[in-house]
Every structure is written in C-alpha cells, then in structure tokens.
Amino acid sequence: MNAEKLLFAMAVSFILVIMSSAPVFAVCNNADINWDLEVDIFDLATVGLAFGSEPGDFNWNPDADVKKDNQIDIFDLAGVGLNYGCSLSLEQPTPASNWDDLYGWIKWNITGQEVPSGYRIWILDPDDVPCGMFDIIYSGMHGFTHVYKDDSTTPNIDEGASIGDELFVVVENLTSHKIYRAWFDRPIIFHGDWGRYEANISVNP
Ligand SMILES: [Ca+2]
Ligand SMILES: [Ca+2]
Ligand SMILES: [Ca+2]
Question: What is the pTM of this model?
Fold first, then answer.
C-alpha cells in the first residue's frame, strides 16, 4: 500500500470511528459529565480523574469522554473548558403552530425494562432549548410528544427546533427531579410538518 492509499484508509477509519461514537447527547455539548445540567468544577475534576484512560482501565469513565473517541485526553479537558459555565434550565416548551409528533418505546438501558409513569421526557434542540415534553402515562411508552418549531417572527429568541435540527432527549424523575441521561435509538431530525415519527428512547439507569 502506498502512502497515499494508507492516508486515505486512515482518514476513512477515522471518520467511521467518529460516526460510530453513539450515543450522542446534547446538554452543553457533552461537557456536563455528572449530569446535573451545568458545567462546573465537578465536571472538570471528573475528567481529571479519568485523564489518560481508555476502556478497561480502572479509572475509565465513559461520561468523561466528552469527545467520544474512547480515550480521555486533552480534547476532553478542552471540551469541558470551552463549555465551562454552560447550564440548562428545563422550562416548559413554547407552543408553536408547527410541530412534529414523536412516539415510541422508552426503556432502561442494559436491563431493557420499561420506564414507568412518574418520569418526564424533555426533547431538546441542538442548543439545549426544550422544545417538547411528555409525562409517561403507560409504562414503557411515550407519545405523542409534541415537538415545537422555533418562532421565526422572533429571530433574537430561540424558542424551539429548526427544520433539519437533530433532536435530543433527557429524562426527569418527577418526584426526585433527578435527571437521567437518555438517547434515541437513531438520529431524530426535526421536520416541523405535523408528521408522526417513531423515536425510541433508552435511558441510563
Ligand atoms: Ca455538571
Ligand atoms: Ca475523548
Ligand atoms: Ca432552536
């Protein structure tokens, strides 16, 4: 293999690694490692504890892998640094005249058990704006969850999702208000066409 082909093969494998680095989270660009919806010294310290590790190492922590490449290095520290001070408040989505309806199953990761009532899902746009909300009624199911479009008449305010946005999800326990990391089983794109889209959710216990 000549050098050019080798470089090409390396570039392709690099892209494949990036693409396969699911699940993807939205909150503060993954930099909220302890999942309390703000990026602060605790998140930085957690990356520090896992620094230099890879999967299998005693101090490996997948949540500290901000740049999802299965190693904790300077890029992960930088990821927290760049998002330092970022926080997210879960406020009621702003209703709009365009929406998508999401529906599907919702299960705990690993065990596969159904997430029961008493939990709320929040749908976020890529800027962490809550644009949809649904309280689980029937165990293991959500929907239809209205996801609202950004109001284009207020260009200075981001109220919701734009067409083509990838959507993200977090889950809240309605009693303890503990936040759980969650993700869709495939990328969910916002259409704003009143369509119904299957969007299955896994939740980290
Ligand atoms: Ca945090
Ligand atoms: Ca990394
Ligand atoms: Ca938006």
Answer: 0.82
